[in-house]
Design goal:
170 residues; mainly alpha; Ferritin; two-stranded antiparallel sheet; elongated
Length: 170
């Protein structure tokens, strides 16, 4: 009796699949990033100097809005049709993933350290969303990623402005 054996090898197709993820997974990770950004900025409000409080309050609100956009988008019929489609994982994913977890606030000694971390967080988000916008199909998901990339860029610009002001005072 002869049996047929199928051998699966890690060939080009396997390597290609390792570099892909589903739109559903991307949306889940991005939603988590935005929710944790909201928590981060919200928790900073009483820990930063008075001049920075309005900024972190505004950033918390904007990150909450981003999270709500992901929640609303995930219910959209178009997105439901696209959720299993695979797209390439952007090169910025590792850096983006680093910022998903909210740090312990006692790690930051002063406003300067907080602003440095926040600028890195916004840069990582901007790079990730820009890359994702180029990977996904035209439509509501792509529009959201372009919008968020622009929003995160604006956040970073504002943080850089505040950082520069802080350094001038020292």
């Amino acid at each position: 009796m002869h049996t047929n054996t199928i051998t699966i090898q890690e060939g080009d197709g396997y390597q290609e699949l390792k570099t892909k993820t589903s739109i559903g997974e991307i949306l889940t990770i991005a939603s988590s990033f935005e929710y944790n950004a909201f928590i981060f900025y919200n928790s900073l409000q009483e820990k930063v100097s008075v001049p920075l409080r309005s900024l972190v309050k505004e950033l918390a609100k904007e990150e909450q809005n981003h999270y709500e956009l992901f929640q609303a988008l995930s219910q959209h019929p178009y997105v439901q049709e696209q959720i299993t489609k695979l797209v390439s994982i952007p090169p910025s994913t590792d850096r983006f993933s680093y910022y998903i977890q909210t740090p312990a606030l006692n790690e930051f000694l002063d406003d300067q350290a907080i602003l440095q971390y926040a600028m890195g967080r916004e840069q990582a988000a901007m790079e990730q969303y820009s890359s994702l916008a180029k990977e996904v199909f035209a439509g509501p998901i792509q529009d959201l990623f372009y919008y968020l990339a622009h929003e995160e860029q604006q956040h970073k610009i504002e943080l850089e402005k505040r950082y520069s002001e802080l350094l001038k005072k020292k």
